[in-house]
Design goal:
Length: about 240
Amino acid sequence: MADLNELDRELLDRKWSAKLREKWAADGEELRWLVLPEQGYVGSTVSGRTSVPHEPLNDVEPSHVDRTGWPLPSDLVTSGRYLGDEWADDPSIMWWAVADDPGRAAVRFGDHLTAVVGEAFLVLSSERLAVVVEQGKVGSRRPEQPGASSGWFGKVRSAAAQVQQAAEGIAALKDAKHPHSYFEVPISQVRGVRFAPMGRNIPRAAFLRIDFADGSALFARHYEAEADAAKSAGSG
């Protein structure tokens, strides 16, 4: 979605805002903002070690999203030779997690964003912060059926199983586009959200900085970062 123009971004934002309010938010839960999916990578600095692209350090739910063939970040970034926050000047970096331990919240967000790269929405509500994807993008695939038993009863059982699977498949297709929390934390774990201009380019890259109660931080490249940071009042 990196090539969407401003109008298309606004239309997609409105579409998903409405979908989240209808299919995801609980009664009384207020949607504050969402970051749209982008074609780009997660980077991380965990316990002083930089990893670009980031590879999950914790268990994540299985994903049906394939690895991308997008160009990798520059050698300057992947080698760690950048200074300060120069990684933000590489347009292929969309997210960056910073933590002193792999189990911190920012790293777990980075893990899940990596697993559904290009498909993930980051959503803040009055109750939680979540990585949201379409329901059909995640979850265990149905295991292959073992070889059918020989004989008439085996064939009957096999046919019944196929009918049931077909019915379940039709129901699943109806829900496949529904928003699903791939990973989330309660708002009490979010210490604050603020606008964070990053990098050395002029103008500087617009990021949201999300600070967690455990001391970790997640940076999200976002074209509406300044405006949405102002909507985050009361988080944490």
